[in-house]
Amino acid sequence: MDSFFEITGISKSYAGSIAVHEIDMCLKKGHVHCLVGENGAGKSTMVKIISGGVKPDKGYMRLGGKVFAPRSPADAQRLGVVAVQQELSLSPYLPVYQNIWMGHEKHGNNILKRKPALRNDTIDLCHQYSIEIDIDKWISELSLEDQQIVEILKAISLGPQVIILDEPTSAMGASNTQWLLQLIKRLKEQGTAILFISHRLSEVMDLADDITVLKDGEKVATKTREGLCENDIVRMMVGRELQDIFPAKAEPEQLAKQKILFDIQRLTSKDVKDVSFFIRDGEIVGLAGLEGQGQHELMLSLFGLRPIIKGQIKIDDKIVAIKSPSQAIRLGISLVPLDRRTEGAILPLSLNDNIALTTLQRRQRFGWINRTKEIELVKQMIHRLSIKAGGAASPVETLSGGNQQKVVMAKWLAAEPRILLMDDPTRGVDIETRQDIYYHIRELTSEGKAILLNSTDALELVGMCDRVLVMYEGTIVRELVGNEISEEGIVSAAVGSHIGITK
Amino acid sequence: MNRENNKKLQHLNSRSASFAHSEPLFLVYGVFIIMFIIIIAINRSFLSVISITNLVVFSMPLIFAAMAQTVIVLTKGIDLSVGPAMSLTMVTAASLMRDSTVNILTVILLCIAIGVVLGLINGGLVVEARLPPIIVTLANSSVLTGIALFIMPQPGGYIPSKIGEIVTGHIGFIPISAIILIAILCFFWSPIRYSRTGQSWYAVGGNEAGAYFSGINVKKAKFTAFIVGGIFSAIGGLFLAFQTLTGDPMMGAPYTLNSVAATVLGGTSLAGGRGGVLGSIGGALVLTIIIDILYYLGVSAYYQYIFSGVIVILALALGLLSDVVRSRRTVSKGEEI
Fold it and tell me: Any alpha helices (H) in A208-277, and if so which ranges?
């Protein structure tokens, strides 16, 4: 089939550092072209260039044979090229139906007809793509996952010829991921050219017709999917084998001898019902389940962010009360939160200030902060987590997503926790950084820390956890140990085949 | 079949959603009703057409100041020149107005044109020169006060008393001021608010980058907000002139702070993107009635200054409080924020 959207020799650099260099690609009608690479490989820059947000320094694009040089995202949209970006483009306090048609609605300014017309269009659209969503709710009232769906619907409503999906599944649970995969198949049939970006290689393998691998702003190769396996892609991306990504787990016999550090009995809070489990010294326990089954809320409750209604928490066999994050920190609990941009790092502040934040109290002397100690601590952390940054003084917002996540981890490790709650720590993080993070997490267990890891990525749970707890409707329905921990095991337990509740 | 059901379901949902979205409105008008009951309890004679008309009439300048502020705050801006802009239109009206109807209408239009120009200046500096609104409008407030003092160094001027009679009058038991307000809301405000332009204010205030990526003209959204704000400020200044039948170059000054208070009290978020003028009108009514209550309680006029300052802070705190309550609720629903 002929190429429909051609990218030739695109280069872009920011303040001297090269973001992408001489990239060639071509998308075909009704084909899915996957773009893979680590964070910082240049994928996001490519998305921005194609969707009109950023102008390339060199090179050109052609759409259906004509030169395509959009002046703005709106311009690109008019020409039929639409991107679903990672940063949501929705307006939080407008209802779904206004957000979807924002910037391209077909109705006039007649105030009596406009609202019902927009609502009807939205209902039809939802129906056409079998989506159930309350179209009158504000975006801020939807879950992250639903927001992502609205973002995708908005893109489709433009009737694009070329659609770019930049990690659309990073915030999605299994059922919505399935929906998206169906949707992509449908778009293929309609002859849309699709550029798909994902960190989940299984999705890439599922969907791709062609795969382009980027590394450090340059194209490694474009291949057709036939004859490729996940390992081949990883090798092109990072030069390593897939099985090396996860560190070795703890020995089950050794682990059984360790004492129980964190013991939760019949914990109930809003959206969490009667949850009991324990974590041993040096153990990684995973939380699995469909999206919104109480995993996130359990994390928040254990960090004092949600009032605990009932239940008992013991640390080292002592009953404790956790009513606020500061109390949790004092008890040695840290939470690496779900959204690193809002809850994790303070983006405009430097690495130094971010990492030192949790230990300000401790390094205070007569009200003055001991800077020497601080600098030493930050240096250690940067080294220990191999954070790639210009220096300790550079603002966190200038780092790549993966490195931002490491800063958040560093910040919480600096607090020297004994119990580490990690809420989807590798969401939207590239493979190489993930691998780093995985090894660091495992390393922590050797220091006798207990870790609770919530993840939307089943593969990650399989690779990392000594035990996996599967949640459904706020309660733990299944505990998986040893060989039971597999992608199939987790998925089948998550969809609600409750075979009795194990302790 | 299934489709019909779905439509029904979504329709039901829609009601609960829009009901929840107008929560701040219920809150501010609820407070107003309570205040109203209090004032009647203090002074039975307040329950008369004349006192209620007076309440509405004396609220008018603040209502328009608050509406001006709200439009701009919705786009995540702020206008600290609302008060001086009112002074400027007030003294302009008071120095130019004569008794002929033609003259009166011309001067009213001129004042509104001044409002448009002020909006263009603020908007231009914020949008094209990319200066922060808080500084631009604060600096402009000084400039406008200077111009107002230049036009009319001392309070004075002339406003035909027949306008005063119209503005403070009532038809049956409905104050004419209220009719003017409702007419402006219906024929000027609503068509803009429910058009794409109005929607773009909310979009830009809520997520500016997102709005840009959706193809919204961000500059136009901010510009129009400043222009509409300028028009409302001018109308507020005119009401100030019509009410007092004079011009006073310093009279508008307190309205800047009070407009912010009324806006916040009415449930508009200073962070932008959320709220609306109906709430701000309620906020303005509440602030005015509180001053009335203090008056009936025999509190000295000096203390009233202190009280209105404290009330502004309380209004901000209340606004923040309702934000907190709302976000708590969102969190407790188990959804991401």
Answer: 230-238, 252-257
> Which of A47, A84, A89 should be substituted to probe chain B, the one whose Cβ sees the most B Cβ atoms within 10 Å?
A89
What are A124's strand-pairing partners?
A: none
**Chain A residue with minimal CA distance to B13?**
A134
Nearest to A143 among B203, B274, B335 (CB): B335
| A104/B215 touch (CB, cutoff 8 Å), yes or no | yes
Q: Which of A89, A95, A127 sits opposite B6 (nearest CB)?
A: A127
Q: Which of A79-83, A226-230, B72-76, B305-309 has the lowest mean pLDDT?
A: B305-309
Given the candidates 1.10.1740, 3.50.70, 1.10.3470, 2.60.40, the CATH classification of the domain at B23-323 is 1.10.3470
Contact B211 A102 (CB under 8 A): yes
How far does chain A reach from its first CA to its final CA, in angstroms?
Answer: 56
> Between B325 and A23, where is the model more confident?
A23
Q: What is the pLDDT of residue A503?
A: 32
Burial class (CB within 10 angstroms; exposed 0-12, middle 13-18, buried 19+) of B129: exposed
Report percent pLDDT > 70 for chain B.
89
Q: Which amino acid is at A314?
A: K
Q: Which residue has the higher pLDDT, B157 or B7?
A: B157
Residue type for position B194:
Y
User: Where do the domains of chain A lie, and which CATH numbers do they carry?
Assistant: 3-242 (3.40.50.300), 246-332+417-503 (3.40.50.300), 347-416 (no CATH)
> How far does the CA of residue B52 sit from the closest CA of chain A (Å)?
32
- Which DSSP string do the residues of B125-174 spell out, in sequence order? HHHTS---HHHHHHHHHHHHHHHHHHH-SSSB----HHHHHHHH-EETTE
Instruction: Give the per-residue pLDDT at A243.
Output: 62
Residue the block writes with tokens 């407009």: B259
Residues of B with CB under 8 A from a CB of A: 3, 6-7, 10, 13-14, 17-18, 20-21, 190-191, 194-196, 199, 202-207, 209-216, 269, 273-274, 330-337
The pLDDT of residue B330 is: 46
Residue type, B45: S
pLDDT of residue A239: 58
Tell me the backbone φ, ψ of residue B129, rounded to 5 degrees. Answer: -85, -5
For residues A283 and A452, is the Cβ–Cβ distance under 8 A? Answer: no
Contact by Cβ (8 Å): B265, B276: no
Residue B149 reports pLDDT greater than 90: yes
C-alpha distance from A397 to closest chain B C-alpha (Å): 16
Give SS3 for A496.
coil
CB contact under 8 A, A114 and B194: yes
**Nearest of B64, B29, B107, B103 to residue B267 by alpha carbon:** B29
Distance from the Cα of B216 to chain A's closest Cα (Å) equals: 5
pLDDT of residue A13: 82
Whether B210 sits inside 8 A of A88 (CB atoms) is: yes
Does A111 contact B14 at a Cβ distance shorter than 8 Å?
Answer: no
Structure token digits, residue A241:
């084998």
Question: What's the whole-number mean pLDDT along residues B137-151?
Answer: 96
Rg over CA atoms, chain A: 24
CB contacts of B332 in chain A (<8 Å) are 270
Q: Do A74 and B215 touch (CB under 8 A)?
A: yes
Domain range annotation of chain B? 23-323
Q: Which residue ranges in chain A fall short of pLDDT 70? A: 1-2, 15-17, 39-40, 170-171, 238-243, 341-342, 360-370, 428, 495-503
